[in-house]
Structures are given as C-alpha cells and as structure tokens.
Amino acid sequence: MLDWTDRHCRYLHRLLSRHTLLYTEMITTGALLHGDVPRHLRFNAEEHPVALQLGGSEPGDLAKAAKIGQDWGYDEINLNCGCPSERVQRGAFGACLMNEASLVAEGVKAMRDAVDIPVTVKHRIGIDKIESYDFVRDFVGTVAEAGCEVFIVHARNAWLQGLSPKENRDIPPLRYEIVAQLKREFPHLTIAINGGIKTDAVVQEQLQQVDGVMVGREAYHNPWWMARWDELYFGAPASTLTHLDIEQAMVAYMEREAREHDTHWYAIARHMLGLRHGLPGARRWRQVWSDHRLKHLPAREVSAIANTRPDGSLPD
C-alpha cells in the first residue's frame, strides 16, 4: 500500500471504524535512520490503534527503527516480508526475505529486544514457483522461535521475476487453504489472512478458520464498507454517521491540516474518492473533488459544489 495508506487515509478509515487496527504504508529503515523522520512517522492521535510497517533486513537497523516507532507512539511494529517490487528486492527486503528465515528471525529478535510493543510479520505463502506448504511452514516456525506471535499471511505466492507488483496481486492464485493449514499447525500463534477479500461473507468465512483478516485495496476503494465493522466484528454499537457526516468531518480535518501543517486539501481528498462508491451521483461527486481547477477554493466550498443537487438539496 505504498503511497496509499498515509496518515490522511488512516484518518478517514478511523472515522469509519473506531476499533479496526490500521497499518502505515511500508517505511524503510533507511528512511527512518537517515531521512526526515517526522515526515514519515507523524500521525494523528485519532488513528490509534495503528501499526508501523517497516521494510528492512539488517537486524541492528530494524531494532533502531522499531525503537523510533515506539518512541513516536505506534502500537505495533510490523515487518514486511511480502512486498514483491523490484525496488524492494534491490534493498534486500520484502518478499525475498522469505528465502532467509533465519535472518528474519534475527531481525524479529532484535526488534523485540528493543521495544515493548508487539512485533509482527506480514509475508506471502511462497515465492516464485515454490508452492510447497513446507516452505511457508518452516518460515513461520523459524520466525516464531524468535518470539513472533502474530503472522499476517497474504495467501498468494510472490513472483520475484516476471511479474509487476500489480500483477503479483492478481496472477498468482489465492490459496486460502494454506493459511488455514498454518493455523491448524500453529494453534498457539495468531494467524491473520490477507489477499482478495472483498465481502463480509468472505471475512466471516475466514474467521471460522483463522484469527484475523487484513483488508487492503477494497477498504481503500470502497471505504464505506468499514462503517459496519465495529458492529459486526468488535461488538460495538453501529455507527449512525452518514456519508455526508464523514465528508464534513474530513473537511474539518482538511482545514486543521492546512492551519497546522500547510497541507493542501487536494492531497487529502484523493483518499476519500471512494466514499460514495455505488451511490447515485458518486461519479460527479468524485469528479468535483478531483478537479484540479478547483484547487484554489477552500475545501468547504468544494464540498458544497460536490454535494449540491440540481434542486439545491444535499444528499444524505
């Protein structure tokens, strides 16, 4: 979810679900140790609980980056061992780390020694044409010995050669049964599943076999789906907020960001373009919020334009 789940996106998602665990986009250890830390790690207090996802392979660097993340107030450190992009591979981390389970275990141990918050791992079920269950079983077993208790498993192989990151999200087949088998073999571990999950029916089916579900792109493109999650999965009261309520809350956030950080509303609005997914008038609403010709207007005026019907009324 690089360049997708930034703090503005997460603020929107938190408006829709108070209890869902949110994750940052992957941030490399190099960016934290040698770059602009506030730019990478600043987040809104409203986002809790929120996990920092790291990309890296050197245990010492991972430990330092994890400590920085804890000091900034993150609730969890997650090590990405699933990203298949060539840029990530050149940095010797992401999915290629599944070939080096012992190194991942060293990184997990170093991070656990450095922080008091949970350290978790996200990974694939295999890489390239390795489709043996034994491969992912041994990876999980080795990393678990280092103290990792939570594994988020993308139920596809990552092809490190021949497929783009986008193709890696679609072409390798989903094999949910592999993740279920991991849970049966490691009942003491928390096993969550990721990959291609788009409906509550599939979520509920998977929760009969594993401990959790991670949703990525569907939550981004259709964020209103999240509005039901607190009631369905966390035993909390259903939200009474309307689409317009959420939009107005985002406008207030845009105004706050402009005052405090000189952030233009246009950089925030892109994350909520799916808010009215499937509703009448959604196409025009998206067009207004994404129209660069309106960038000179205040966000509240753009919202008024986006929501005014021909008869002058506002939608719910």
UniProtKB/TrEMBL annotation:
Matching InterPro entries: Aldolase_TIM, DUS-like_FMN-bd, DUS_fam, DusA, tRNA_hU_synthase_CS
Listed EC numbers: 1.3.1.91
Claim: tRNA processing is one of the keywords in the record: yes
Record's catalysed reaction(s): 5,6-dihydrouridine(20) in tRNA + NAD(+) = uridine(20) in tRNA + NADH + H(+); 5,6-dihydrouridine(20) in tRNA + NADP(+) = uridine(20) in tRNA + NADPH + H(+); 5,6-dihydrouridine(20a) in tRNA + NADP(+) = uridine(20a) in tRNA + NADPH + H(+); 5,6-dihydrouridine(20a) in tRNA + NAD(+) = uridine(20a) in tRNA + NADH + H(+)
Segments passing through the bilayer: none
Start and end residues of each DUS-like FMN-binding domain: 1-295
GO molecular function: flavin adenine dinucleotide binding; FMN binding; tRNA binding; tRNA-dihydrouridine20 synthase activity; tRNA-dihydrouridine20a synthase activity
Keyword RNA-binding among record annotations: yes
Family to which this protein belongs: Belongs to the Dus family. DusA subfamily.
Protein name: tRNA-dihydrouridine(20/20a) synthase
Source organism: Comamonas aquatica DA1877
Top-level taxonomy: Bacteria, Pseudomonadati, Pseudomonadota, Betaproteobacteria, Burkholderiales
Record gene name: dusA
